[in-house]
Structures are given as C-alpha cells and as structure tokens.
Design a protein that fits this description.
364 residues; Rossmann fold; 3 domains; six-stranded antiparallel sheet; 24% helix; disordered C terminus
C-alpha cells in the first residue's frame, strides 16, 4: 500500500472448545515502524463467540510515512464476567508490511517530455506491415482516412478508432533516482528527499502503465543494482518496495548513469534528484545522449503535482469495529451479550487504548 492510503486489517477468532462460550473478548494488535521504538495499539472486540464458531472483526489502518512496518503479535484477552481477572493469550506472530511513498500526479508536460526523449534519443523506427498488416487500434487524428476507421470498435467505445498498420519500435526508457542528502541534513533537506521519492514512485507507475518498451532503472546510491525489464505490475512493485526503504545519502550519480547507458545505449537517461545537476558530471550515453536532469523543486507544479499529505502527522490509526454476530433466527435473544443495552453498546465501540504496563515493559 502507499502512504496515506487506508487499509483494512481483519482479525478472525475461532473458538475450538466444544462447550464453552466466550463473552466480551478483545484482540489487541500493535503496529511499529522499523527503526523506531514507538508503537501504536489498537483493540477490536468480539462480543460473543459460541463453541465451534468463528467471528471476525476489523480495523482500518492509515500509515502516513513510507517504510517497513511490523504488525503484531496479536493478543487475545477477556475480563468476563466482572473484570476482576484477565485471561490473555498471544495467538499470532508479527506480520510485515511495506508502505510505498505517497503517489501524486504527473502533468501533460511530463508525458510530452517522456515522448520527446524517447523519440528524440533515437528516431522511432516505424515498421510497416505487409499489405496493410494490422497491428492495433489508435484514436482518430485529423488527416486519417475514413477508410481506416474500425467501425465496430468505434461503436463500442463511443469515439473514432482507426486501424494502425505500422508498429513503432521506441527506444528503451532509462531512469536514475538520485536520493542525495548532505552529510548534515536539515528538515528542509529531509522533506525534499521525501518529495523526490514521491515523484519517482509516481513516475515509475506511469512509465509501467504507459510504456510499451523495456525500462531500465538504477539508484545512485547502489549503481550495481539495476532493474531492467518490460514494464509490468510486478516490476513496478519491486521498484516501489526499494523506494519505500531507501535512505538518502551523499552519493555520486555518475556510476549509475554509466550502468543505465550500458544496458540501454539508445536511451537518454532521465535523472530525478533532490539536487541540481552536479558540476562536472558531463557523462553521456554511449551514443552521446546527455542526461535529462530533473530537480524535484523545479519540477513541482510543472511536471509533478504532489499529493496532499494526511491531516495528521506520523502514523494514524483509525479504529472501527466490524464484528459479525451471525445470530440464528431460532435462538431469539439468547445470543445477546449479558448486561444492559448501554453496556453492550459501549462494549461494541472501539476506542484508543493506552499501552499497558506489560506492553511498555516489553519495549525494553
């Protein structure tokens, strides 16, 4: 998932006992970001769990920062009937979650830049089919012959489509991500890094969605790690996973440029960076293509529109209960939890809970 996106975490609890019914049980989950000691707790309720039954409850989770997170271990507890004693059980180990940088929007100028670099790097090679061989459909443009209109597809989509009898073999795309940070960064440097990673993640998704040719991507801090593949969903996920955990550093992009131009000699490398183009970089591809340097502050608003951040800072947990009671019609009110109507309503509400003494002790 991406930062700021709500995800639903479902908790299934099964009662394997043959005779005992569980009342007013709660499941407590913990969420912690890798590299930090602070954790957040969330509690969901299972008001009634008959023998041999399974009940589900869920909560929504919104994580506003990219990175690795650990969910769990999950604790199941009950204080029924009077709250004087507590039975507790740890039922699962931790789960891992990777949160990608927040995804923004790219402007039409970005796509124009991308088309210009691909076509201008090396002329697009049009390959004509034999006797009008059919390669696909494309939108109608002024000057197209009406004889080329594919009327059946036009009727389906509601806009004119024409048959394409030539195939464009466009050069490969090459992208370098330069997560530069000075040795002693200030808050402005850190925010610029996050913005650059958001732009890079948005660009990767756009390239994998729109491009039909092979893509080569390298990171300036690890130039030997080069991704080169046809643009697929799996390829995009691998790159976004790397961006999610990427840490900025004072790295030299020159070696990464050499790597991408070695693997994609016909492409003009596009560099997305936190800094202006370093003096004396001067590296070009094997066919003389000078890199297109994109400094994130200069691109904001022109090529890239940053997504609005979440209203709160840090990890934000939104709790909601989705307990399913599955009452049988022939049992009447026998499945209802004991206590007054007000007590049952309070039991079904999900509220923030502080870290228990045991949880705080576990930190150390």
């Amino acid at each position: 998932c991406e930062a700021g996106q709500a995800i639903r975490v479902r908790v299934d609890v099964a009662n394997h006992a043959k005779h005992d019914t569980v009342w007013m049980a709660s499941a407590i989950d913990s969420i912690r970001r890798a590299g930090t000691r602070k954790r957040h707790l969330v509690e969901v309720w299972i008001p009634h769990l008959p023998p041999g039954a399974t009940r589900s409850s869920a909560y929504r989770l919104v994580l506003s920062e990219r990175g690795r997170y650990r969910l769990g271990p999950l604790r199941l507890q009950s204080r029924f009937p009077f709250g004087l004693m507590r039975a507790q059980l740890t039922v699962t180990g931790p789960a891992r979650l990777i949160v990608w940088p927040r995804i923004g929007q790219l402007t039409p100028q970005w796509r124009a830049l991308l088309r210009g670099e691909r076509v201008g790097a090396q002329h697009s090679q049009a390959r004509r089919g034999q006797d009008g061989e059919f390669y696909g459909l494309r939108p109608f443009t002024p000057g197209d012959s009406l004889r080329m209109v594919h009327w059946r597809s036009t009727a389906k989509v509601g806009e004119p489509l024409v048959r394409q009898t030539e195939r464009l073999e466009l050069p490969e795309l090459a992208l370098v991500i330069d997560a530069y940070l000075p040795e002693h960064p200030v808050a402005e440097d850190l925010e610029r890094l996050e913005k650059m990673l958001r732009m890079a993640a948005t660009a990767v998704l756009d390239i994998c969605r729109e491009s039909g040719s092979r893509v080569t991507i390298a990171m300036a801090h690890a130039p030997s790690d080069v991704w080169r593949a046809l643009p697929t969903r799996r390829f995009a996920e691998q790159v976004l996973d790397a961006l999610a955990v990427l840490e900025g550093q004072a790295s030299d992009p020159d070696e990464a440029l050499r790597q991408v131009t070695f693997h994609a000699p016909g492409a003009t490398p596009i560099v997305i960076s936190t800094r202006s183009e370093p003096m004396g970089l001067g590296h070009s591809g094997s066919r003389g293509h000078t890199p297109q340097w994109l400094q994130v502050d200069e691109c904001e608003g022109r090529l890239f529109i940053d997504a609005k951040p979440n209203a709160s800072t840090g990890a934000k947990l939104l709790r909601e209960t989705r307990a399913t009671l599955n009452r049988s019609s022939n049992t009447g009110n026998s499945d209802a939890a004991p206590g007054t109507r007000r007590q049952r309503r309070q039991a079904e509400e999900v509220a923030p809970i502080p870290e228990s003494r045991e949880a705080r002790h576990a930190e150390h």
